[in-house]
Amino acid sequence: MPKLANVPPHAAPAVHTASERPTTVAQFEIPYTQILGVDGNPQAELPRFAADPEELRSLYREMLVLRAFDRKAVALQRTGRLGTYAPCVGQEAVGVGIGRAMAREDVLLGTYRETGAMLARGVTMAEILLYWSGDERGMCYAGPRAPREDFPISVPIATHAPHAVGVAYAFKLRREPRVAVCVVGDGATSKGDFYEALNGAGVWQLPVVFVIVNNEWAISVPRSRQSRAQTLAQKAIAAGIPGEQIDGNDLLAVRAVLEQALDKARRGGGPHVIEMLTYRLGDHTTADDAGRYRPAAELDRRQLEDPLLRFKKLLLREGIWTEADESAAQEDGAAKVEQAVNEFLAIQTRAPQSMFEHLFAELPAALREQRDSLAGDARDE
Fold first, then answer.
1. What is the pLDDT of residues 162-171, one digit of tens each?
2. Label partner for 76 (CA 20 to 30 A): which of 10, 69, 285, 300?
3. Which fold has domain 30-39+47-350?
């Protein structure tokens, strides 16, 4: 057998006797938070904002409007007026909680299912519908309350996680008390982009909060087949970042825990990872049929954890909501959605050749030729 040459002495493995071998060099914990039980009864002390009855009613109304919008968007896609749509039914507490916890100056980097957060941040329903119809103007955020520095919807999985690190690095460099909030799904935590972003955020101690929306399914792949990790939050540990898990169907927990993480990051306390446990009650998108891979019994069981039902039970128990309030809120929500749909349908559609805009400072010759050909075909029709 040939000998190994030029191997420095320090490269040799340490030899320990059985009694000398180190056992545990580090220990970590992943805490779990639930404030509101499935039955609507508090399981822990309520956060400060919950002391205001009108604040609670407002949060619930937002979830009701979001669900009404969700249903309408699916109906629009089924009738050919949207290209596709990613429903968020069952995940309303996550979206509304994120949007209401963030400060105005923070920046949201989300996926295609952050409709609730976008609405809470000031994006209009008409803009969201415009985006899903294939019109890039839907991501211009031109409304009066629009969060102009929030990033557009990210359809590729986890590619926006490194972008969030860049945003947070800019905040730190400029000494701005702002936070980048990066929302990813459970499937995204298996991507290299996610791990690289965590590592950078941890090394530079950046003001960024990563929210993992664990809705149990990455399209047709269940959480159990994605990772052997006990939690997805513990993936933060390798990057030296605190991680925790919360009940994502509990709006009080979502908002309270995220507010704490945002406050810590804003004060220079570094990044944080929050895994929100929820469930996708609908299809992955309107191009999907979840009935082909998801057991019906599982869906029936998870319907009982509906975040709207849970929050309504709290309001009824506190005596700050009635069935008359429910009917009025649903009617008001439906009217707002119909108004937004009318605004969307009234927007003049753009010519197909507009797809070549916003790609290059100067369009390459080959693409100019395609654009002009497409414009010529349109004139001939």
1. 999 999 999 9
2. 300
3. Rossmann fold (3.40.50)
